[in-house]
Amino acid sequence: MSITIRNIKPEDNVELARIIRESLIEFDVPKVGTVYSDPDTDRLYQLFAEAPASCYFVAGEDGALIGGCGIYPTPGLPTGYAELVKLYLTAATRGKGIGKMLMDKCYEAAADLGYTHLYLESFPQLAKAVSMYEKAGFKPLNGALGNSGHFACTIWMVKEL
Fold it and tell me: SS3 string of 101-134?
């Protein structure tokens, strides 16, 4: 397994949108009020290029794009907080530690960008991901922070960096 992690490029947009939407369909996550219906899902490179203090990393295996994860300054978050966003991998590559590799890269980048906390939103259907977040030190919250626009999410977590 030859995994590479790099910054997002414009040509990654179509494949990342496909991976994200297929993952949500696979786990029967709502389409409305999630990244599935978010128009920015089709323009992730531009979204992160236009947002100061943000970054998005993609993972590749033997030259094929297999997923990604990013840090985004979601409006309305407390000072020092950013959101860990759009962590998705192809079905065939989950459970191999690649998600952890992406998250570790994001933690390092978030600290370099001056963030003190990372916030995330998820769903009970993504139980393996939620378990991974818990093992990484994310703690549950009683409600959403900030204004992600993803109102269908029902799990909210935060981690101090």
Answer: HHHHHHHHHHHHCCCCEEEEEECHHHHHHHHHHH
